[in-house]
Design goal:
By secondary structure, the protein is mainly α. 37% of the residues lie in helices and 5% in strands. The protein has two helices and two strands, in the order ββαα. The chain has a two-stranded antiparallel ribbon with strand order 1-2. It is elongated.
Length: 76
Amino acid sequence: MMEKECFAYKNGRCKALKVKKCEGTSCGFFKTKAQILEDQERVFKRIKSLDPATQRNIMEIYYGGKMGLLDDVEVG
């Protein structure tokens, strides 16, 4: 069952889409939990590379102002 590997599959259903049956790897939203973590790290690295005012703006809008999420991110 590929759906069990998808980040959005919880409690027997898809949390990303309103579908009756999981399409597995053919779904455009299918990503493993590891892929989601890699994507999130890439996003945080990009945000951290921006000027401080832009960082704060993005973090306030999309992450509830939790600037601490960027603390462990290394830009390199």
